[in-house]
């Protein structure tokens, strides 16, 4: 009898452990063949919450859109409304941003962040989304684009053109002008037509020296 009791106790412990491991696996999400719902989380850290994602449908609004249109006659905080027409772009959009190494670096940063998916790093229009099947945009370095005024490039970025939407909500006015300057760099084979490679290096050195002097004075 004593031997039977020991065997019964051993297998009871083994069974209890197996059942415990099963429920731990089930509740932790490692075993989910019984349901498509997320695992039970005591503290979910807001991993699962009721929300809608941009450009997705939503039954909450009457028009069925999750992304809301801006209210009429409103602009974003610290933003501006672009009202220049294409006919007036060449005369009303005046590029007053000076050509400096810092401006070109900022323009390159914004171009590679916002523009390369379509226009590619060389501006010729074979970006990653184009390689995936998206429509190929016109080359920014073709002769017709080289002849564009700065104001027309600024207009296209601000108002959009053809299948390209406006980037006014993604790039500030200053950033758009910086991108215009960087497009001129691409069109000119790597240097801005108003700024030689030597002057860019001099400007970079001056900026670095100014930063060093500022850091030294702060100590």
Descriptive report:
- With 219 residues, the chain is mainly alpha-helical.
- The protein has two domains: 8-40; 89-211, Cytochrome c-like domain (Cytochrome Bc1 Complex, Chain D, domain 2, Orthogonal Bundle).
- It is 47% helix and 0% strand.
- It is built from nine helices and no strands.
- It has helices at residues 2-27, 89-92, 101-114, 116-119, 128-131, 143-146, 150-159, 173-187, 197-218.
- Helix 3 (101-114) crosses helix 8 (173-187).
- It is elongated.
- The model is unreliable at 206-217 (pLDDT under 50).
Question: What are the key terms here?
Answer:
9 helices, 47% helix, 2 domains, Cytochrome Bc1 Complex, Chain D, domain 2, mainly alpha, single chain
| Assembly status | single chain
Strand segment tally: 0
Strand content: under 5%
- What low-confidence regions span 5 or more consecutive residues with pLDDT below 50? 206-217
- Compute the CA-based radius of gyration: 30 Å
CATH class of the largest domain: Mainly Alpha
Task: Compute the separation of the termini in Å.
Answer: 86 Å
The appropriate CATH architecture of the largest domain is Orthogonal Bundle
What does the largest sheet look like? none
User: SSE order in H/E notation?
Assistant: HHHHHHHHH
CATH superfamily of the largest domain: Cytochrome c-like domain
Q: Which percent bin holds the helix content?
A: 40-55%
Mean pLDDT: 81
Shape: elongated
Question: Per CATH, what is the topology of the largest domain?
Answer: Cytochrome Bc1 Complex, Chain D, domain 2
């Amino acid at each position: 009898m004593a031997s039977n009791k020991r065997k019964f106790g051993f297998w009871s412990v083994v069974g209890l452990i197996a059942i415990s491991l099963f429920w731990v696996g089930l509740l932790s999400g490692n075993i989910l063949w019984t349901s498509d719902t997320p695992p039970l989380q005591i503290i979910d850290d807001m991993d699962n919450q009721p929300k809608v994602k941009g450009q997705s449908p939503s039954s909450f609004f009457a028009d069925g859109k999750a992304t809301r249109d801006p209210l009429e006659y409103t602009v974003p905080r610290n933003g501006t409304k672009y009202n220049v027409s294409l006919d007036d772009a060449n005369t009303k959009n005046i590029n007053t941003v000076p050509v400096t190494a810092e401006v070109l670096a900022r323009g390159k940063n914004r171009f590679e962040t916002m523009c390369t998916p379509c226009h590619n790093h060389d501006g010729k229009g074979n970006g990653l989304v184009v390689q995936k099947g998206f429509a190929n945009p016109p080359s920014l370095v073709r002769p017709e684009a080289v002849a564009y005024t700065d104001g027309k490039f600024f207009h296209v970025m601000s108002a959009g053109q053809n299948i390209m939407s406006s980037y006014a909500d993604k790039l500030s006015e200053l950033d758009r002008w910086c991108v215009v300057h960087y497009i001129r760099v691409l069109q000119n084979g790597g240097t801005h037509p108003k700024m030689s490679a030597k002057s860019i290096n001099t400007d970079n050195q001056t900026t670095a020296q100014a930063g060093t002097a500022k850091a030294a004075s702060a100590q």
